[in-house]
What does this fold into?
Amino acid sequence: LLDFGATKSYPAAFRRAIRQVLGATIDRDETRVLELTYEMKLVDRREKPATVGAYLDMMKKIGEPFLAENQPFSFGDGDYVKDLRALALRFVGLVEHSAPARELIFLNRKLAGMFHLLKDLNVSLDLSAKVTEIFAADLQDGVTHAPRGDGSLNT
It folds into this structure.
């Protein structure tokens, strides 16, 4: 069941910050992922190294569909959705100091639903053009971690 009435708008600053986290994730820049994550207060700096590691593992998995070498990405092949869910549960189980990010709860539920739908429909997508589109505004603004045009990202 798709509920197109259940929509939410996010402020431009939040959207830009999320794009930067995703860009750093795609670029495999764990230091930058953590800097941005801490700035956004998605993870508390007091978390144990195991918790931070679980978060980074989850972020790596989130970035997989957008990596140039994974194009076209097949949502129907393998265990992407199952693995992502397991990593998210592992991270949540280790959290001691981080409050749930209110802004991300709705987004997470929508993305999880979409990933499940794509899996059930056995969809394969080349997301290269979408990655470029997602980061186009940031590239024009000179924001780091915007795509170079070859599916990889500027740093």
